[in-house]
Each structure stands twice: as structure tokens, then as C-alpha cells.
From TrEMBL:
InterPro entries: DYNC2LI1, Dynein_light_int_chain, P-loop_NTPase. It comes from Triplophysa tibetana. This is Cytoplasmic dynein 2 light intermediate chain 1. Residues 169-189 are annotated as: Disordered. GO terms for molecular function: dynein heavy chain binding. Belongs to the dynein light intermediate chain family. One of its GO terms (biological process) is intraciliary retrograde transport.
Length: 389
């Protein structure tokens, strides 16, 4: 190391054209420059070594029930011939991609949460301390159902954010207790670069986020004013969370190809698409960092006094305006059973089954069948029953 530094010092002396070089540069500054040069060379060597090892990233798909998450996943994996099937609860698959000729393939772990909001508690399975530093979230919203759009988005993102923060906090405490603060520095909240538009006015999501508005083929038949409200609202939400936004139509190869490029950026670290489309009459395509509050403008409020809405923050203001146009539905989805194995009680004229199903993460199911009610009701009439031969 000493020899290397000496070589660098001599190199800088020879490069200098000023005969008074020694008088212009202090000894401390010279050693700082030499140390920086060595560090840059070491970093370059580490980067070159990392290029020969595959990377692993995790992409978690959440969103509207029957909103097209599986269809998008299949198109990303180039499985066009496979018919999409309803996702029961939580499904896993993976994709691989080579960075070049004769290089190891990078791996993307792809998780999909089914059931819309009803199974939001399952976010704790794909989000772990082991993958939190390489995790991304894809939120798929059904544009054909605007009345449930905000609630779906809010509940699912809140669940994901809450668990990400919980994992980060737990990992940091564990790292500090074991080997000091340096161990926990690998898990830090997402920070936007200093030139990000409106950086001081927004609240970036804790991990990279992509919002996909599906079923644009149905959405494009909406009234133009309603389309404008939905487009501006989702643009604001995406920008507020530091997310990318795209509208798709499963029948349009052009929109699916652009969505695939944005997902590939999250899954494999490919280059971010640069095309932008903000026309409400066309599918939106806005990569993160390419929109701004000035371009989005204020909420669409034709007959609403913004000052009378008493919003707590800008996001709450947009929510109140949006729900004036598209009131939130009291959907059955929010009250559905959170465990798909659970079923309502089975009743017959003679037998009442009370099924209490408790399913743990180890998939152990305990079923208790109670017949006491039947016995009490029929105790006096056993002899009167006529049995078929």
C-alpha cells in the first residue's frame, strides 16, 4: 500500500505543470488525494468482481382483486400461452435473466398476493430482513372500478409500508446489538437523489414502487372528465410516493411491453425507460422522477371548495376530492374472511355443523364438529324416525 501511494504522489508531481506545485498543495491535501485515488481503484475492482456474480431481487405484486396481476406476471415471464388462474392467497414464482454472453443469470423472486385487500396480513411472508434491501413493490389497480380504487391502494400500501418499516427497525436493532451500527447500515430507508422534483414536498415509499393501472380498454370509454380525475389523482399519488406509473391493456402489446420494461428495471436492474405520456386519452407512462407537482396541477374541483374539506395533508386532500367524484363502496371484499380455508357453517334439517378452522403458517388445520345441538333437539324423537330399508 505504501508503494502504491508513493507511486501516486510521484504521478501527481510529474503531471503538474506548475514549478511551484509544492508550495500550492499542502502535505495533508496531497495525502488526501492519494488516499482517494487508492479508494477509487479499490471500488472499481470490487465493481468488476461483482459483475461476475448473479444478483437476486424480490418483486412483490399486490393490488385489486381480479385486477390483472397474474396476467401481467405471465406477460413479463413471456408465458403468453398459459391461461391466468385466480390467485388463491399468496403465490411465488421466479424469473432469470442473463446480463451478457457466458455470464450468470440474475434471479428475480416474484410474489403475488391474491384476494385484494382481504389477505393484506400476508405481506409479512414476502417482506423479510433478508430481502428488504432488494425489495420492490408493484401495485396493480383496476381502472374499471374507480369507486374501490382509493381504498384498495390505501390499505395495501399501508400494510406493505408498515411491515417494511417494522422489518427495517427490527433488523437495525439486531445489527446494532450484535456488531455495532455499521452492521445495520445495509438496511436504510429509501432516499431520493437531491435533484428529484419536489423532493422536500413528497413522502417517498419505503421501497421502490411501481403503480400499474390495468384494464385501460374499459377505462378509455369513461366520461372524459372522470378520466381526467383518475389520471391526475394517480399521477399525484405516484409522484408523492416517488413511484413510476403506467396504464396497461392486456390486449395491447405496446402497453404490456412498456410495463414489462418498468418491471424489469425493478427485477433485474435494467435501464429505466425514458418515454413519457401524460395525455388522459392515452395510456399514461411516467417513470419515477419525470413528473412534478407543477405539471400535475391542482385537484379537479369543479363544484368543491377545497378550503372546506379540512384535509390533514396534501394526500388527504386529493383523497377527499377523488371520493367526491367516486364515493368509496362498502364492498364485501373488506369484510371477507381473511382465511380462504374458512367457510360459513353448514346446516341441514337434522344436523348443524359448526366448523371452527384455525390455520397456522405451518398449514395445520384443526376442525371441531359439534353435534350437541342436534342431539338435544332429536333426543325425544329417535323412536319416531322412520328409516329406509
Amino acid at each position: 500500500m505504501v508503494v502504491t501511494w508513493c507511486f501516486i504522489i510521484v504521478h501527481y508531481f510529474l503531471k503538474s505543470t506548475s514549478p511551484h506545485f509544492l508550495f500550492h498543495v499542502s502535505v495533508n491535501t496531497l495525502w488526501d488525494v492519494a488516499a482517494a485515488e487508492v479508494r477509487n481503484r479499490d471500488d472499481a475492482e470490487d465493481t468488476e468482481e461483482d459483475a461476475h456474480f448473479p444478483t437476486e431481487r424480490t418483486v412483490f405484486f399486490i393490488g385489486s382483486k381480479a385486477g390483472g396481476k397474474t396476467t401481467i406476471l405471465l406477460r413479463i415471464l413471456d408465458s403468453r400461452d398459459e391461461a391466468p388462474k385466480p390467485t388463491l392467497a399468496l403465490e411465488y414464482t421466479y424469473g432469470r435473466r442473463a446480463r451478457g454472453h457466458n455470464t450468470p443469470k440474475d434471479v428475480a423472486h416474484l410474489w403475488e398476493l391474491g384476494g385484494g385487500m382481504s389477505l393484506s396480513d400476508l405481506v409479512q411472508i414476502p417482506i423479510t430482513a433478508e430481502n428488504i434491501s432488494t425489495l420492490s413493490v408493484v401495485l396493480v389497480l383496476d381502472l374499471s372500478k374507480p369507486n374501490s380504487l382509493w381504498e384498495t391502494m390505501e390499505r395495501l400500501l399501508d400494510s406493505a409500508r408498515s411491515h417494511v418499516e417494522k422489518v427495517c427497525s427490527s433488523a437495525q436493532k439486531t445489527g446494532e446489538s450484535r456488531s455495532g451500527k455499521q452492521q445495520s447500515q445495509n438496511i436504510v430507508p429509501r432516499v431520493l437523489h437531491k435533484d428529484y422534483p419536489d423532493r422536500e414536498l413528497i413522502s417517498p415509499f419505503t421501497v421502490p414502487l411501481l403503480i400499474i393501472g390495468s384494464k385501460f380498454d374499459i377505462f378509455q370509454d369513461f366520461d372524459s372528465e372522470k378520466r381526467k380525475v383518475i389520471c391526475k389523482t394517480l399521477r399525484f399519488v405516484a409522484h408523492f410516493y416517488g413511484a413510476s406509473l403506467i396504464f396497461t391493456n392486456s390486449k395491447s402489446e405496446a402497453t404490456m411491453s412498456k410495463a414489462r420494461s418498468l418491471v424489469n428495471q425493478l427485477a433485474f436492474g435494467t435501464e429505466r425507460p425514458k418515454s413519457v405520456s401524460t395525455d388522459p386519452s392515452k395510456p399514461l407512462v411516467i417513470p419515477a422522477g419525470l413528473d412534478s407537482l407543477s405539471q400535475i396541477g391542482p385537484p379537479v374541483t369543479s363544484d368543491v371548495d377545497i378550503g372546506a374539506l379540512h384535509a390533514k395533508n396534501p394526500l388527504d386532500l386529493w383523497k377527499k376530492v377523488f371520493e367526491r367524484v367516486f364515493p368509496s363502496e362498502n364492498t364485501k371484499e373488506s369484510t371477507e374472511l381473511k382465511d380462504p380455508a374458512k367457510r360459513p357453517p353448514i346446516t341441514t334439517p337434522y344436523i348443524y355443523f359448526s366448523l371452527e378452522i384455525k390455520q397456522s403458517l405451518s398449514n395445520e388445520i384443526h376442525i371441531t364438529v359439534e353435534l350437541e345441538q342436534y342431539k338435544r333437539q332429536q333426543a325425544k324423537s329417535w323412536k319416531s324416525l322412520t328409516l329406509e330399508p
